[in-house]
Amino acid sequence: MKRRDFIQLTGMGAAGAAMLTGIPEMGMGHAISPERALEVIDPALKKRIADVALNAARSKGATYTDVRIGRYLNQFVVTREDKVQNIVNTESYGAGIRVIANGGWGFAATDKMDNDSIAKAAELAVAIAKENSRLLTEPVQLAPQKGYGEVSWKAPIEKNAFEVPMKEKVDLLLNVNSVAMKGGADYITSLLFLINEQKYFASTDGSYIDQDIHRIWPAFFITAIDKASGKFETRNTLSAPMGMGYEYLNARPQDKITGGPTTLFKGRYDMFEDARLGGLQAKEKLTAKSVEPGKYDLVLDPSHLWLTIHESVGHPTELDRVLGYEANFAGTSFLTLDKWESKKFNFGNKLVNIVADKTQVGSLGAVGYDDEGVQCGKWDIIKDGILVNYQVIRDQAHILGLKASQGCCYSQNWADVQFQRMPNISLQPGKEKKSVDDLIKGVEKGIYIIGDGSFSIDQQRFNFQFGGQLFYEIKNGKIAGMLKDVAYQSNTQEFWNSCAGIADESDYRLGGAFGDGKGQPPQSNSVSHGSSTTRFNGVNVINTARKIG
Amino acid sequence: MAILSKEEARKILEKALSYSKADGCSVSLNGTDRGNIRYARNSVSTAGENTNVVLGVSSNFGKKLGTATINEFDDASLEKVVRRSEELAQLAPENPEFMDALPQQTYGGESKTWSEATAKITPEYRAQAAADSIGPAAAKDVTSAGYLEDSRSFSAILNNKGLFAYNKETGVDFTVTMRTNDGTGSGWAARSVNDVSKLNAATTSKIAIDKALQSRNAKALEPGKYTVILEASAAADLVRLMLNMNARQADEGRSFLSKKGGGTKVGEKLVDERVNIYTDPWSDEVPSSPWQNDGQARKKMDIIKNGVVSGLFYDRYWATQKNVAPVPFPSNAIMEGGTASLEDMIKDTAKGVLVTRFWYIRPVDPQTLLFTGLTRDGTFYIENGKIKYPIKNFRFNESPIIMLNNLETLGKAERAVTSEGQLSLFIPNMKIRDFTFSSLSDAV
Q1: pLDDT digits (tens, 9 = 90+) for A346-379
Q2: Which ipTM did the prediction report?
Q3: Within a 10 A sphere around the Cβ of B311, how many other Cβ atoms?
Q4: Residue A239 and residue A351 share a domain
Q5: Structural contact between residues A394 and A405, judged by C-beta atoms closer than 8 angstroms
Q6: A487 touches chain B (CB under 8 A)
Q7: Does A123 share its domain with A61?
Q8: Per the omega criterion (within 30 degrees of 0), is the bond before B330 cis?
Q9: pTM, entire model
Q10: Contact call for A459 and B374, based on CB within 8 A
Q11: Beta carbons of B147 and A520 less than 8 Å apart
């Protein structure tokens, strides 16, 4: 589920009746009272349930079993202009049991948590594994994994967003709407989406892992209209969805980057300030200069670059895509194994260092352990421009000759089977001291792009096109005014080889995808992408303005 | 338990409603049985079944609405879920756009959405479909990846104004991608049916295998404006994007249907006069439920008639603001076609590009409905009435409005499976002039 689809979902909720069918279809679970979200299930009870499943599967012939007992809480609050459109709290609680029997995978899930139902689900998983094993070309090879015993991990949040009174959230959003409209917005939709995953994992390797994960996404979507010309422009939020608590919305002076054409946010977000500027900028866009197509040097802010990293680095380095498991839907990858084996494939130039990191504090992908009980870590994907690694789970590790999984296994819910999903994938900051101003100073003809917009990339991740939220012309080292109708097109390898400078660590910020889709049936994953502001030389920019009727 | 009859559903809904103490209450019951099989690298990767029945209750006090759901149906659970929805309603802020429940509506004839054959699908059927796809692929040195999902579902609603509606539906979706083992060719085919007896996985797979073999070693053409023949899937993936003709957005001035100076383009010519698109829940080809989930009756209605915008879709709240009758959003779309087969259209083309399907289609400018995306899994160059050779994929930047103004020929219509959309479409293959391809992709 991409952001766009999520917006459609929340839009659907404008009528209560629509949500009745909307919620179960999305697999979000059942509506609950906000207070119930604060209840916690005792890990000792979860351990007892897990042991029932492990024993039942073993007794039917499973050679490996893992159990995920999950309680998934969602809250979303949606407003437009001066109205609250929708408030929804949902809970989904159940267990998913995955086994290997006769060398094949089997999976079954249940939301009935009594011993009998759990044992039956485990037995069904074994039966399915045995059935599937008849069609196997080779048995599953699972990388060894030590058991951790009884351990826990909690996201280091300061304030549980589910504890914040609803009135405070509604007031925040309505104030955001009001200030945007004062500045020039004709319409605004704003929302707050909160997630708490309370996950328990147990396996026959001897792990019992209890984890508590929080995510938050504040966002708005502004439209400004010029009735006389019949034209309209939009300006979306510059926030990043984060793996944080409500403290994300409490921005301190040190969290704001000012001095450029708009305020940017580092670590924490001032939604009110972004909306105030957003209203003004949406209006300014109506009369902005339409871009002249051609080659430009691009200076890309992290609020924009995260999506280019996600699409052009994150997805093609997923090993399941490389191997062909996603060929019928998301696609395959141009980063074939021979390119990795050669140890000299120039994904980018020497400035480009990209790491996978599931431990990054505050990121969407941060967890202690993945959904097959592997402790999470950090590793290089692109080193000095060379492709050096992929994203791997336990049954893929042997393909790369690895002795252990990299901990990239995830499932969106207890009811869905876990599979390889993207960890946080981030561009490392420049090693030399360099500011955004330093980057802009050196550009003769360029465009400074802030915020994510339109995005599209082919099924092997060569050719892409990206838009943005705010575009500023750079002339002879200075920002010369706002542009519109901008999109750039490039080829992944060409683009990362045109990298001409990366700001230093002091500019490093995270962006992210709250609901990245993959698989059939599709599942959603949340993932962050960090970078400092980066310059790319000679990128092809097109003008997207057209005329109809 | 998943598929309840009309009477069984009504009984549970009546019991739930009997516990209501709110000003208004609507209850719904939705159940689905789903089965699927997924394969890749010529081997089955996952297979499974799941069942889900959910009762939902929406209670309101004045304009304060609360919704709760449950999956247990004993009397105590039913009472509990009604009470919970009432508690949530009391806590909710007023929604000025809240609309009271509808009284009983009149629905047209019997729905055509259920098929007994689909209701009887077994895991063995799915495994056979996968085998029918994998076997022929392996025999031709091609690697198959595919997904088959079948579903049986029912929906029922009841409210305190006496409205009751029920519908049950079956569906099967099958998609398959075939890739040649040298990595230079890829083909795709897909079918979506309500009645599984209309699906033949082997035949569909053969189309994808042939496309994969024919698309090997593609040549590069310069990007630019080309005459294109869009197969039904490609056509559907762009046409669907103009069918969300939301009256509110148009009235608010933020739609491709908004007019300079205010007002909407209803009654104005938008596209070529040969374009006729309508929605019809009783279509034999793309049947849908005769009611939408708030109980409003769906009707057969024109969307585009002779190229002119016939009418927009109004939710109930916006209809009251504009003093018009609400118009339910379309559940399907049927575009009238012509008589030309795909082969006829190719024969009649001096220079052009044949497109199997599009991929990764995203909005670029909502003002002009400009979208970008790429061709995928079978793109060919046509010269002097013949397919000359496979070509590398293109990125397009195009608006369905501009595209349907550049219409050359409408071919025979068929039920199309889109790459990314949800709407069921019955739509012709079509020939379009001056379609904008803006760059080349090396992706196979």
Answers
A1: 999 999 999 999 999 999 999 999 999 999 999 9
A2: 0.95
A3: 17
A4: no
A5: yes
A6: yes
A7: yes
A8: no
A9: 0.95
A10: yes
A11: yes
